[in-house]
User: Which sequence fits this backbone?
């Protein structure tokens, strides 16, 4: 779901998210997961003031969206500014919450690769995050993480079937955004879902173009305009398995005798 989220106006942004959840449940009852952009709750505002609207992972926004996830039996992923724990009061993360249809917080992912515009505000995360569901295993990314093939590969090595990437990608880099997301899908024979902002924040103009990519890197559906709206597509893990066993045999043909990829985080 892409739209123009107001900077610093959490109440407005959460109401906007709720309106999309309600309309999606009404118009697309087959949808089981809805994804919102990076820092959707606060808008993509990169000043110290963004810390004033930071929340803990299970703060008021989570409580509100958790109730909606239960009501409509949906998985919901969204970006927010996360406060560090009691022992880290001056620490803030660019984070993503992933809520299950029972309203539980299944995971919180803290963005690992920060852009130069973000480094003065946020602490980079250090943990890979995957989530098991009846829909398959999801790997969590945020925006600039798509530019680093090794992170997507590590998530795939952890068994991810689908990579979720809420984003705030700006003009004029729309082609790079699309190519990176498509490449990460093809690299790992996984589905990739991206969700971008639209509109303008300070000097940044966002182009939308949220999309869902198949395991062969092809675009399954894309928002082809800069306005608001939903991008809906079916994710069939059987298709992914067929591709892995067929032409896209990268997993079968990997040369583990020549290289060994391990996650070094802690």
Assistant:
């Amino acid at each position: 779901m892409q739209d123009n989220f107001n900077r610093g106006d959490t109440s407005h942004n959460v109401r906007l998210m709720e309106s999309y959840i309600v309309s999606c449940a009404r118009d697309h009852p087959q949808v089981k997961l809805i994804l919102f952009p990076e820092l959707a709750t606060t808008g993509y505002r990169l000043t110290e003031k963004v810390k004033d609207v930071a929340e803990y992972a299970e703060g008021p926004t989570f409580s509100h969206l958790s109730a909606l996830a239960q009501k409509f039996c949906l998985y919901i992923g969204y970006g927010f500014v996360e406060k560090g724990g009691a022992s880290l009061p001056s620490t803030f993360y660019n984070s993503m919450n992933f809520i299950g249809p029972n309203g539980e917080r299944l995971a919180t992912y803290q963005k690992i690769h920060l852009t130069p515009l973000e480094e003065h505000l946020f602490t980079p995360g250090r943990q890979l995050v995957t989530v098991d569901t009846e829909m398959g295993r999801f790997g969590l990314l945020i925006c600039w993480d798509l530019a680093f093939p090794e992170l997507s590969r590590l998530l795939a090595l952890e068994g991810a079937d689908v990579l979720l990437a809420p984003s705030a990608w700006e003009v004029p880099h729309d082609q790079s955004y699309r190519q990176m997301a498509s490449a990460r899908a093809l690299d790992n024979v996984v589905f990739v879902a991206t969700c971008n902002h639209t509109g303008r924040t300070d000097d940044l103009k966002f182009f939308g173009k949220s999309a869902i990519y198949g395991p062969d890197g092809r675009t399954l559906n894309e928002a082809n305009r800069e306005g608001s709206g939903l991008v809906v597509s079916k994710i069939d893990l059987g298709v992914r398995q067929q591709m892995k066993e067929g032409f896209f045999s990268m997993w079968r043909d990997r040369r583990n005798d020549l290289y060994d990829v391990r996650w070094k985080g802690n």
